[in-house]
Every structure is written in C-alpha cells, then in structure tokens.
Predict the 3D structure of the following.
Amino acid sequence: MATVSRSETSNPSIGEKKSAPKGKGTIHPIVVYGDPVLERPAETVTVFDDKLRHLLDEMFESMYAAHGVGLAAPQIGIPKRIAVVDVSFREDPKGKIVLVNPEIIKKEGKQKGSEGCLSLPDFRETVARASVVTIRAQDAHGKHFEMTGDALLARAFLHETDHLNGKLFISHVSALKRDLIKRKIKKLMRAGEWEYTPPL
Ligand code: NI
C-alpha cells in the first residue's frame, strides 16, 4: 500500500534487483495499474509450506526495497490471498505482520488521510477509512489469529485486504478524481512512462 516518504531508508541492494539470484532477498518488481492481476480477486491459500514462507520473506524484502508499509501478493504478480505489512518500517521487529487469507471482521470510527499505492506510483489521494479495524487472518504456518489496529495500521489492513479482493484505493475516491487519475495513467502509458521505478 501506502508508500512512506522516508528518503533515509534507501536500500543499497536495489541496484541488484534484476540480477539478484533466486533465493532469500529476491526483490520482485512491482506490478502497476493496468495489469488485470490487480483487479481480480486473489485465490485462497491452502498450503502452508516452506515455499510460502520463502515467498513471505521475499515479499517483505520487496516491500522494504520499495519503501512501502504494505504489499499484497498480486502486486508482484501472484494471485494469492497473501499480504505483508510493517507500519514501523523495520524499526520494530514485532511490526512485521503476515496476513494470509485475511478478512476484515470489525470496523469502527473514521479517519481521513492521504493514501498511495506502489501499484499507482506518484498518485496520492485523501481516502476516508475506518480508524479502528480488526482483521482475522492466518500466519505463515496456517495458524489463525485476530489483530486490531488503529491509525495507519487500520488503513493498511483495509488497503491490503482490498488488494486481495481486486480493489484499488482509487475505488474509494470520487468518480471525477478516479477518471482524472485514469486519464493521466493512459497518457503515461502512451508515452511509455507508466511503470514502477524503485526509489533510490
Ligand atoms: Ni496498494
């Protein structure tokens, strides 16, 4: 989801992105708006094996490299109900949250705030969301858990769960703003400039 503007968190491994060997630390390129994988509901995960845990490691690495605070599997082209979140941006080891097959089970309150998405680079809009959100999900080993978050964490839970339902944050802005964004993207596509560029 939500990109953080923290220029101090630059990742030295970014330059190695394309040539990095497969394995822990592989950074996946981010899929941008226009790819149908982002607008299709993702598939439920039924197998909790080492392959899944390896993918989760790679998703965290890819999210940190992109300076994101959340990343859903469809954003790296994988149509599975998997997301990772870390609103502490690596500062709190307990901030790393794995969400497999997440479902929002409770929403309370209201917050308005600026929201962005790695799959819609450089677009940010004010989005109204619930301010306290409880999510039910499975961890990397298939264990069910519930977690309640507020502020940015609540926003991340909603944004990432939306991704797994094929929904992007621009579906929460006015039709007028959404059309304007889509028009700008089409223009960028025509110019061959619509792509994700990793932060330096
Ligand atoms: Ni997003």
